[in-house]
Design goal:
Distance between the termini: 30 Å
CATH class of the largest domain: Alpha Beta
Shape: elongated
Number of strands: 10
Structural class: alpha/beta
Radius of gyration: 19 Å
Number of domains: 2
InterPro entries: Alpha/beta_knot_MTases (IPR029028), Ribosomal_eL30-like_sf (IPR029064), rRNA_MeTrfase_TrmH (IPR004441), SpoU_MeTrfase (IPR001537), SpoU_subst-bd (IPR013123), tRNA_m1G_MTases_N (IPR029026)
CATH topology of the largest domain: Alpha/beta knot
Protein name: 23S rRNA (Guanosine(2251)-2'-O)-methyltransferase RlmB
CATH architecture of the largest domain: 3-Layer(aba) Sandwich
Keywords: Methyltransferase, Transferase
Strand order of the largest sheet: 7-6-5-9-8-10
Length: 250
């Protein structure tokens, strides 16, 4: 069994989610504690709302006052608690058996990017994303909306020390590839047959030196010379697609 890298307990009050995909996914997640749902009668009539959940019927203007300005709530707002924390060791014990990839994010702090990455992780069957707690956004309505329901699907492990977490991931049998636009080798040449942990750095700064040093190899995505780099969420989607479609027979 992999040893556990200490996680940080989530603190703070409840959250507000909005938009159909985020709300429906949260309602369907048995691990999500839902407090109440507010919405227009028309919008809530289209949802499968649990009978024991508190319902507050509101007009569009009322909903707009409890969430960020001009947020696309689609007539529904859900009050929830953050998800329970997940231990890295527990996650690795399950993920390593199935060989699904893990995505490690180094100081990716924009909630829109993390939400989009979660969506790609769900689409390409990643086992989890791993972030350092103090250099990643918290759960939020903005992130949940960007994730389009994937926040409820893909486990999100928050750790204190990312380098130590990468050591644990290696102990579980994963080949750790850090994505670096200046690397000599392309991702396709380095994936091999091993279980993969793909490590993505923040836009602009890329991987920190200590994080890169805890990777087994560095790789870049092949792209046309007229484009220097990609948004981190786009790069993550391409890397996950490459892993999902790789030939494991040769």
């Amino acid at each position: 069994m992999a040893r556990k890298n200490r996680s940080v307990k989530k603190t703070g009050g409840g959250l507000k989610f909005w938009g159909r995909h985020a709300v429906e996914a949260a309602l369907a997640n048995p691990h999500r504690f839902v407090k109440k749902i507010s919405g227009t009668r028309e919008a809530l009539a289209t949802l499968d709302v649990p009978e024991d959940l508190a319902v507050v019927y509101s007009d569009v203007a009322d909903l707009g006052r409890v969430i960020p300005r001009e947020a696309p709530h689609q007539g529904m707002v859900l009050d929830v608690d953050p998800l329970p924390e997940i231990w890295l060791g527990d996650l690795l014990d399950k993920a390593a058996e199935k060989g699904r990839p893990i995505l490690v994010l180094d100081q990716v702090t924009d909630p829109h990017n993390v939400g989009a990455i979660l969506r790609s992780a769900a689409a390409f069957d990643a086992a989890a994303i791993v972030t350092q707690d103090r250099h990643a956004p918290p759960e939020s309505g903005t992130l949940a909306k960007s994730a389009s329901g994937a926040l409820e699907i893909v486990p999100w492990v928050r750790v204190v020390n990312l380098a130590r977490a990468l050591d644990e991931i290696a102990e579980a049998g994963y080949w750790r590839i850090g994505m670096d636009g200046e690397a000599d080798q392309t991702l396709g040449n380095l994936m091999g047959q091993s279980k993969l942990a793909l490590v993505m750095g923040a836009e602009g700064e890329g991987l920190r030196q200590n994080v890169a040093a805890h990777c087994d190899a560095l790789a870049r995505l092949p792209m046309a010379s007229q484009m220097e780099s990609l948004n981190v969420s786009n790069a993550a989607a391409i890397a996950l697609y490459a892993e999902y479609t790789r030939d494991r027979e040769n």
